[in-house]
Structure formats: structure tokens, C-alpha cells
Amino acid sequence: MVRTVGVAVVGFGWMGRVHTQAYQRVPHHFPQLPVRPELVTVAEEVPGRAEEAAEQFGFPSTTRNWRDVAADPRVHAVSITAPNFLHREIGVAMAEAGKHIWIEKPVGLTAEDARAVADAVAKAGVRGTVGFNYRNAPAVAYARELLASGELGTVTHVRVRLFSDYAAHPDGALTWRYERARGGGGVLGDLASHGVDLARFLLGDIESLAADTAVFIPERARPTGATAGHTLATGGELGPVENEDYVNCLLRFASGARGVLEASRVSVGEQNNYGFEVHGTKGAVFWDYRRMGELGVSRGTSYQDQPVSTVFVGPGHGEYGAFQPGAANAMGYDDLKVIEARNFLRSVAEGTSYGPTLEDAVHSATALDAMSRSAAQGTWVTLG
């Protein structure tokens, strides 16, 4: 018998909208799931936003105070899509209130924040998952299978890139994202957190790293009102950008493999240029998020001059079959979040974690903290 899980969304910017749409789509793509999400309430402190969400998506109630969600007995599971600096407080409170949580990365500002949420989830005995959505791409799942099978030999090195232009405009408003106390490590939390998770998902634990960081746009204009996304602002008072625009990091894995992770939020001409190349002693795999349904694969016995073939993922790869009936039909970003919602709800239903957990968030945040220390000290840092 299918049971209902009451869900709430805390923070209704773009990501809150994405989570809400994912909940509504889950039954269509995963009809065998033993639970069904039911939208209960939305919390958003910006006046009018929660009401707009209720009107568009059918939330029966709204609030401007997220604490009302923690106290609401109708709510069993909560999406936490508020800004980074609120992750720890909200995450811990929801877990302590007995709510299962789906929280966006990077889960706070530091590894200490991520650990606090992870510990609260474990102590409360609730389920928790994190928004590392790129690992849900069927091509990424296939790449992991190839690497784990040994078909590509022993993995030698990986390069992970995450280049974007969302902060490239010099008139981009000085929102919370650029403040150390509210936005944490800037591009480290925004993009490099995904890169760390992809690297670990494919190659295993990172043992040590060495990083370099930079701020290329040192000042921005302060916004005069509420912002959403990456708002432009001109003529306002200038303030300092306190966190990183760019990071380049060398990685050493516990397996002995090596890696390079590079991320930038100010790369003019780059729109969501995310991807990886993983090389082994017998072959390699290549993935570009902008061509999400394709995986470049080199395998065989030639070693030198060995060709690369393009595999168009299909129903046999990851969760592709829940969305399309045949290979090479396109999937998109929102589909990855539907898979994430399904894994979260399945975790709630079965009491077993599916998809990335809060422990994965702790591993990612630990690496991000190490990057900051490495850049400041100019040394390699070992991950504990």
C-alpha cells in the first residue's frame, strides 16, 4: 500500500522551486515507489515568495519562519534550500524535530557545520541526503561501472572541471554569496563541492591535496532590495568580495591515483562547463555535462593510438529508463533532481540510505576546508 509523506520546502529561490517540481514529478517517473510526497507547507522570509509558491504549486499553507516547519506535525520530510549560512541551524533543528532532510550542498560553511548536521541526523535516526545531483547522470553512473569493473585498468589520474560565468559580470550584486560569513568559500562551496563529490564517487577517498585560489573581481555593488539568483546591481555602495572566485587543486587519492580539480565562477564564455576525464592503464572515460547523455569511452588492447567511442546512454544506464524509452533521448538538470527526490523518498520509506548522504557532505566539506588551508599556507594538506 502506498503511503503519503508530508513534505515542506524551506527557502524558495530557484533551488526551492527545483525541489518542489521534483517532488511533483516523482510519481510519474517512479510509480512503483512505496511512498508519495504531499506538499504541506513552504517557508520563505522574503515577503510574497511563499504565497507565490503556494499559488503556483499548491502548498496548502505558508510561513515566513522556518521554525514553524519544525513544529508542524504534518511534515515528515523537509527540503532545505536556504542560503549556506542557514544550513547548519535549520538542518540540526529539523533532524532534532524528527524530520527527514534533503539538504543542498555544501551543508553549511565548514566541515564543522556539515558534521553537526550529520551527527544530528544520525542521533535522531532520520534519513538525510545531499544535493550532489551530478552523480545521478546516467553517463556518470556508467562511467563508475566501467571504472569499478577494471575494464579500463588501474585508474591513474582524473581531471574534474567546473567553469561558469554566473559571477563574471562586474555589476553582479554583492549578495550573501560573496560574504565569508554567509557564503563560505565562494566557488569552493558553489562548484568545487560538486567536483570533490564526483571525484570521490568515481575514484574513492582523497588522501591529500594542494590548492591555489584567487579573487578576480574584488568589489561589487550592494543590492538595494531582495535578490534572486545572480542579480545585477549598479550605482550602489561598493563592498569587498570576501571569498574565492577561482580554485585550482591537485589531488592524491588513497588508491594512488592523482587528480586535478579546477573551478571558476567568473569564466567569461563558459556556461556550466562541467565534466571530467578519467584515465586508466587500459582506457579512459570522458564526460561533459552539456552533453549529458554521452560518454566518451576508450577501451581495448591498443594502448597507443586507441580510439575513443561515443556511447549514447540508454535504459540500461543508471535511472535513464525512468525518463526515456531509448538511447540518445535528452535528459536535463531537473531530471537529475527527480532522481535525487526519488532516492530521498525511498530512503525515508525503507530506512536505508540511497544516494549521497550527510557523510558524503562531510567528506566534501573536509576537502574544501583543506583547500582553503592549503592556499593560505602554500603547502600540501592531508585529509584526516
Give the helices and strands as they follow along the chain. EHEHEHEHEHEHEHHEEEEEEEEEHHE
- Second rung of CATH, namely the architecture of the largest domain: 2-Layer Sandwich
The number of helical segments is 10
| Radius of gyration computed on alpha carbons | 21 Å
The CATH fourth-level homologous superfamily of the largest domain: Dihydrodipicolinate Reductase, domain 2
Low-confidence stretches: none
**Mean pLDDT across all residues, rounded?**
96
Fraction of residues in H or I helices: 25-40%
* Overall structural domain count: 2
What is the CATH class of the largest domain? Answer: Alpha Beta
Name the overall outline: globular
How would a crystallographer describe the biggest sheet? 9 strands, mixed
Distance between the termini: 45 Å
Number of E-state strands: 17
What does this structure look like?
- The protein has 384 residues and is α/β, with parallel strands linked by helices.
- It has 2 domains: 3-133, Rossmann fold (3-Layer(aba) Sandwich); 138-325 and 358-382, 2-Layer Sandwich (Dihydrodipicolinate Reductase, domain 2).
- Helix content is 32%, strand content 24%.
- A 9-stranded mixed β-sheet has the order 16-15-14-13-7-12-11-8-17.
- The longest helix is centred in the last third of the chain and has 20 residues, at 358-377.
- The model has no long low-confidence stretch (mean pLDDT 96).
Q: What's the topology here?
A:
Layout (H helix, E strand, L loop, with lengths): L2 E8 L3 H16 L5 E9 L5 H9 L3 E3 L3 H4 L6 E4 L6 H10 L3 E4 L7 H14 L3 E3 L7 H12 L5 E9 L16 H4 L3 H17 L2 E9 L4 E3 L16 E3 L5 E8 L4 E7 L8 E8 L3 E5 L5 E5 L10 E4 L20 H18 L7 H20 L3 E2 L2
Parallel strand pairs: 1-2, 1-4, 2-3, 4-5, 5-6, 7-12
Antiparallel strand pairs: 7-13, 8-11, 8-17, 9-10, 11-12, 13-14, 14-15, 15-16
